[in-house]
Amino acid sequence: MRNYLELLQDILEHGTPKEDRTGTGTISVFGRQLRFDLSQGFPLVTTKRIHLKSVVHELLWFLSGDTNIRYLKENGVSIWDEWADENGDLGPVYGSQWRNWEAPDGTHIDQIANVIESIKRNPDSRRHIVSAWNVAEIENMKLPPCHFVFQFYVAGGKLSCMLTMRSVDTFLGLPFNIASYALLTHMVAQQCGLEVGEFIWSGGDVHIYSNHLEQVKTQLEREPFELPQLVIKRKPESIFDYKFEDFEFVNYQHHPGIKAPVAI
Ligand SMILES: Nc1nc(=O)c2c([nH]1)NC[C@@H]1CN(c3ccc(C(=O)N[C@@H](CCC(=O)O)C(=O)O)cc3)CN21
Ligand SMILES: O=c1ccn([C@H]2C[C@H](O)[C@@H](COP(=O)(O)O)O2)c(=O)[nH]1
Hints:
Its EC number is 2.1.1.45. The protein is of the alpha+beta class. The chain has helices spanning about 1-15, 50-65, 70-75, 95-100, 110-120, 175-190, 215-220; strands spanning about 15-20, 25-35, 100, 110, 130, 145-155, 160-170, 195-210, 230, 245-250. The protein has a single domain, classed as 2-Layer Sandwich (Thymidylate Synthase, Chain A), CATH 3.30.572.10. Strand 1 and strand 2 (about 25-35) form a beta hairpin. It is globular. 5,10-methenyl-6,7,8-trihydrofolic acid (MHF) binds next to helix 6.
């Protein structure tokens, strides 16, 4: 994960001070890319502890099409609490757009089922895309999608994934986002009978909040460990049948956690 640390350093060196919606203040750069060869280990930040339980449950929750935080709360995950309304609802966010995008004729589109089908039937297609950026629905979402489009690519029996984010909380959010999409790529590859290739991450407004600067410096003083390996213990029937217990992260060595306030 040296490239992640280099990105933090890049923002410290080249970032422009910029006000933001939350009133916290950031330093920010525009347009960056990171590449991870998934066959070389699972891309998990090791220079602080990452709460993997939150990453896995959040992804299973997206895949189930759910947009209420009840499932997350029941599983001890609190990362979405601040954005939900009094009933726990977030509006038509990721899960809804991934699984249940409403078409003009009133039918609903399951983008995840469709993309898996298209990877299996027509691997060379250049249209393996899932979008959460449903323009007509943005105003009903508690937070417009940050990771808003991803594309799969098949070559030489390997599945790669490229993700685009419009806005990136590089200290708190990005380690979660990288781990989440790397996990998703492993799951889709398993379902489609492919090996894993690369995960490519692209960010638009890539920022460090002004109240994360000390935490970032602490992290940059630390030496990263070797990456862990992901083991998926069985092959479920479909992409929608994975359970929390199916995943094991072998040899996850990490430095101590670093607390930071989340900008709301
Ligand atoms: N400002 C901001 N940053 C984000 O990363 C973010 C949002 N807002 N809003 C929506 C979601 C929620 N996400 C979050 C929210 C909180 C943490 C967080 O506090 N992480 C801590 C504790 C992890 C835990 O207990 O599970 C960390 O140390 O990583 C991470 C991602 C990602 N997104
Ligand atoms: O998965 C996520 C979700 C959110 N973020 C960050 C990026 C920004 O810091 C905030 C969203 O604020 P906007 O004003 O809507 O851009 O949340 C993230 O990094 N990853």
